[in-house]
Amino acid sequence: MDAFRLIVQAQSDYIRCIDDDRLEEWPDHFHGPCKYIVTSAANYREGLEAGLIFANSRGMLQDRVSALREANIYERQSYRHILGQPAILSQQGAEVRTETPFIVARILQDGDTDLFATGRYLDLYRLEDDKAKLEERIVVCDSSRIDTLLALPL
């Protein structure tokens, strides 16, 4: 299977995992010592590494899910992701860099729905065994006003 199709399938599986509230499976979409960052476009342009969310291992992703399920107190909510087509920026062997635009709607427990975030995923995928897994996902949100109630992963 070609890289584009593997990446489209991986992205589809990733967002369904979050949108369907199967968060315990979310870290499985990452390969090895991975990186997951949520930041603003302004911080990304300035090269500021600190993000609203920063994780540099699958263990940190698993801890985030555990905290969401057991420790954090937040209003129940769900997301609905809408993705654009991924653009393959480069490919070197089994590593593929992509950029994909996204829109995320947030649905609150009372049914209110709002546009929660827009931006782009800057990804590094590793292709193995006819699958694409994330080694790095930098979520660059268009707005510098990121809701502090960012509970679920984007």
Annotate the secondary structure layout:
Layout: H1 3-19, E1 30-40, H2 41-45, E2 53-55, H3 58-71, E3 77-83, E4 87-92, E5 95-108, E6 113-128, E7 131-141
Parallel strand pairs: 1-7
Antiparallel strand pairs: 1-2, 3-5, 4-5, 5-6, 6-7
Tell me what the structure shows:
It is a single chain. 23% of the residues lie in helices and 44% in strands. With 154 residues, it is an alpha+beta fold. It has one domain: Nuclear Transport Factor 2, Chain: A (Roll), CATH 3.10.450.
SS strand fraction: 35-45%
User: What spatial form do the alpha-carbon principal axes imply?
Assistant: globular
Name of the CATH architecture: Roll
Largest sheet: 7 strands, mixed
**What's the helical proportion of residues?**
10-25%
Total individual domains: 1
Q: What name does the CATH topology carry?
A: Nuclear Transport Factor 2, Chain: A
- Which quaternary structure do these chains form? single chain
Number of helices: 3
Low-confidence stretches: none
Q: What's the pLDDT, averaged over the residues? A: 90
Structural class: alpha+beta
Rounded Rg: 15 Å
Search tags:
seven-stranded mixed sheet, alpha+beta, about 45% strand, Nuclear Transport Factor 2, Chain: A, about 150 residues, globular
Brief rundown of the structure:
The chain has helices at 3-19, 41-45, 58-71, and strands at 30-40, 53-55, 77-83, 87-92, 95-108, 113-128, 131-141.
